[in-house]
Design goal:
With about 425 residues, this protein is of the alpha/beta class. It has helices at about 5-15, 55-65, 80-95, 175-185, 190-195, 235-260, 265-280, 295-310, 325-330, 350-355, 375-390, 410-425; strands at about 105-115, 120-125, 135-140, 145-155, 200-205, 285-295, 310-320, 360-365, 400-405. It is globular.
Length: about 425
């Protein structure tokens, strides 16, 4: 059986789609032919690209954010002091996010072993809420002294059952769904392992609502479980059922977080900041040489962590770069509630969140046929970041590259990413 056919078979078992944050469903935006049109006069139907996912409300809604540059945008003429702008704009982002205050807990080492030239530590820490966070730390087995560190963010992929396992490999035996996952999105690579082998200490934590941090069925009222349970969890059919349930539960989580006075990206960042604390506190890590990277949902987390925490000296966003306009008019349906921060578009466009890190090194990797975004808005996001870095006199610290293909982080993209880390962190 070909690798692609094997993946599609396994994907059918788990509900995996081709997009990393997609809950895709078939629908048509093209209007039906009008039977009342004058005879012999052809119907002039608009092309899909000119239509909006919210119909005739799209142009009006887009106009709300297009009348002027966002208020905290560095591209505005009144912002000439870089340090002052960064302080002000960062505060605006934090106000919109409404970040919960989470103190960094004690990190425990559960197990240590070697595999494929790497020393691997299974770590765990208990936040004040939810179940404990599991994480993996990978570094060369023969490493001496302090290493540069990488915070590696796993993807979304419509699969909340898995987390760290999506981008790591800790033995010759992998869950078959993770073999298929890595083949599809990463060209068969466990990229966290591969960057660790180049001389880095790589920390891979489970994200909020994934794997060890997922919402367990037994922890919600029975009426909300959809008839499911947590028995036989590693079974592909059980994983498929859980992922479908978790996807449908996302709007409940988002609304509940809004009611709590916070947002999903805020919780992501608060928990990723704890992971960054853990990484920087290690005796074998040089806290002055820290990077972060991730595909899709990991790219989203890179935008916020890289933009808001200057301990991240080098950031690589893969497969998550566009504009608020793109989400608004075209692509909100290809993403979950995890990407949105109410009121923030009035302060900064989406790429400008990552731009808060200027002049620190930043790499954006895009797939030209990425089904989660439109190419014109990916290019517009690139232009925005170029403008920010050019105005700050740091254009040499920014790069954006485009690769053919759908949503992925394949080996050529990984090579560029790893070389970028080597350039700025070694």
């Amino acid at each position: 059986m070909s690798k692609r056919r094997q993946f599609l078979k396994l994907a059918a078992l788990t509900g995996l789609g081709s997009g990393s944050m997609v809950n895709a469903f078939p629908f048509s935006r093209r209007p039906a032919a009008n039977a009342l049109l004058p005879e012999n006069k052809p119907a002039m139907l608009p092309d899909d690209d000119s239509l909006s996912v919210i119909g005739l409300y799209g142009p009006w809604a887009a106009g709300l954010i297009e009348k002027q540059l966002p208020l905290a945008s560095y591209r505005r003429n009144e912002w000439n002091d870089l340090a002052k702008w960064k302080t002000t704009a960062r505060q605006k982002v934090l106000e919109c996010l409404s970040v919960p205050d989470i103190k960094t807990p004690v990190c425990k080492t559960l197990n240590t072993y070697e595999y494929d030239g790497l020393k691997i530590e299974e770590l765990q820490w208990q936040l004040p809420y939810g179940r404990a966070t599991d994480a993996l730390l990978l570094k060369p087995a023969n490493a001496k002294g302090k290493l540069p560190g990488i915070l590696a963010f796993h993807d979304h992929a419509g699969n909340k059952y898995f987390g760290t396992r999506k981008i790591t490999k800790t033995s010759n035996t992998q869950h078959p769904l993770m073999v298929a996952h890595q083949e599809h999105y990463y060209e068969g690579a466990a990229w966290a392992n591969d960057i660790a082998k180049r001389g880095y200490a790589v920390l891979v934590p489970d994200a909020f609502s994934f794997a060890s941090r997922r919402v367990m069925l037994q922890d919600v009222p029975e009426r909300n479980r959809g008839g499911l349970n947590d028995n036989d969890p590693e079974n592909p059919a059980s994983i498929q059922a859980y992922n479908k349930w978790a996807g449908e539960h996302a709007h409940i989580m988002a609304k509940s977080l809004f009611c709590a006075g916070t947002t999903w990206p805020a919780v992501f960042w608060a928990e990723d900041r704890v992971a960054l604390d853990v990484l920087c506190a290690r005796n074998d890590v040089d806290a002055q040489r820290i990077g972060c990277a991730g595909l899709s949902g990991g790219g989203l987390r890179t935008v916020f962590s890289g933009g808001l925490d200057e301990r991240i000296k080098c950031a690589i966003c893969v497969g998550f770069m566009t504009t608020w306009k793109d989400f608004l008019l075209h692509k909100s349906f290809t993403h979950t509630w995890m990407a949105y921060v109410p009121l923030l578009p009035g302060e900064l466009d989406f790429p400008e969140i990552l731009g808060l890190r200027v002049p620190l090194p930043t790499l954006v990797l895009n797939d030209s046929q990425d089904q989660l975004y439109t190419l014109p808005e990916m290019k517009r996001a690139d232009e925005i970041l170029q403008q920010v870095y050019k105005k700050a006199g740091a254009i040499d610290k920014y790069r954006c590259s485009y690769y053919d293909g759908l949503h992925k982080f394949d080996r050529p993209m990984q090579k560029e990413a790893f070389d970028w880390f080597d350039k700025w962190l070694k």
